[in-house]
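agent> fetching stored inputs for the heme C docking request
agent> found them:
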Amino acid sequence: MVTSKTLFLSIFSLYFVSLLYFNNSEAKSPFDEEELNLMNEELIELVKKGDELWHSPSLGTNGLTCANCHPDAANANPHTFPKYQSNIGKVATLREMINWCIQIPLKGKTLPEDSEEMKALEAYAIYMYRGFKLNPGDNKKAYPPVKVDSGPGYP
Ligand code: HEC
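agent> prediction call returned; pasting tokens
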């Protein structure tokens, strides 16, 4: 027979289990403010490196830079990858598309996809589209990046 004591204990333990599972909003962030700032500084440093490369003719051989055709990363549409690219003839990643532009419009040598330069170019492109909703496969249109009134477009 279920006594009121066992009933009370069961409800009590259910309450605690539910607290553990559903009350994560009150859990402490794993990083404190100082750690978060340091991590963000490292990210912005990579974005800055990407911005410099984006404006550098060193990636190619014909004097062009990414920014000639993609000012402030315009039309890079990083949030639409992966997607089918007709010029590559398959579903491509953002890094493959960056290499396509290095090879074709810039007449340069492709970067290893895990290189620091590739990571930096990717970081810059994605940072300039921060807040955009992920929409893989979207080949419908070109999207302008975040609005840049002055400065580089990042802190
Ligand atoms: C001479 C102009 C030109 C230059 C310079 C250029 N691109 Fe592009 N880029 C294009 C064109 C044209 C496309 C569209 C190709 C397509 O999707 O058919 C494109 C597409 C892209 C895309 C994919 C956009 C999308 O939605 O499909 C990315 C990302 C990109 N370029 C990055 C770069 C980077 C990084 C550089 C410098 C290394 C660069 N581009 C240099 C002309 C250029």
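agent> quick read of the result: The chain has a mean pLDDT of 91.
agent> awaiting further instructions
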